[in-house]
Design a protein that fits this description.
The chain is an alpha/beta fold. The chain is built from 6 helices and 11 strands. Helix 3 crosses helix 4.
């Protein structure tokens, strides 16, 4: 069986858990995972942020770890991958402004390959225009963006995931078990 390959789109202040947990989980199942960031290359580092739910009106943010990129964004081609994963944090708000990021997402969508977005990662999918007619979830503050992009926002428990065809989405990192499990199913790994 051919080794599965997944592309993760990331940037500075990506949510720490939302990049590291899927990265390691996919590797545990033998999936090759390439993590890229626009304007960066393999061996460069990005900074992460830790978002926590501590009873405030929104999540709190603390400094996270450095994450070492293992592939060059400039060399990425959709045809080389079996799936796409987009973590949340603050990175999606500016990554969605990059035309090449949006083009890659559209290519994955057209090919029907599995795509996964957690928390604010949905912002890249909404900006790429690929969720029209789809049911998905995200951090609740992103719900209006889903609706404005023509999707149906599913108010989902923080530890649950929503699957609509080739797309799996989740509200935040407490959903990692469900999110990763459903993405691995879509990839045909489990």
């Amino acid at each position: 069986m051919q080794q599965k390959r997944v592309l993760i789109l990331a940037g500075d202040f990506v949510e720490d858990y939302e990049i590291m947990v899927p990265f390691q989980t996919l590797q545990t199942f033998g999936v090759r995972v390439d993590v890229v960031c626009p304007d960066r290359k393999s061996g460069d580092k990005i900074r992460t942020a830790i978002h926590d739910f501590e009873g405030d009106q929104t999540y709190s943010e603390k400094p996270g770890h450095y994450f070492l990129l293992n592939a060059d964004f400039a060399a990425v081609q959709e045809a080389d991958y079996h799936g796409l994963l987009i973590p949340g944090g603050r990175a999606p708000e500016y990554l969605r402004l990059n035309p090449r990021v949006l083009q890659l997402v559209r290519e994955f969508n057209v090919s029907g390959k599995p795509m996964a977005a957690i928390c604010h990662g949905i912002q890249i999918l909404t900006a790429a225009g690929v969720i029209q007619g789809r049911t998905c979830t995200a951090y609740p503050a992103c719900g209006p963006e889903i609706t404005l992009a023509g999707g149906t926002y599913s108010e989902t428990a923080v530890d649950a995931a929503v699957v609509d065809q080739n797309l799996v989405t989740a509200p935040a990192w407490p959903a990692h078990p469900a999110f990763c499990r459903e993405f691995l199913k879509l990839l045909g790994v489990v």
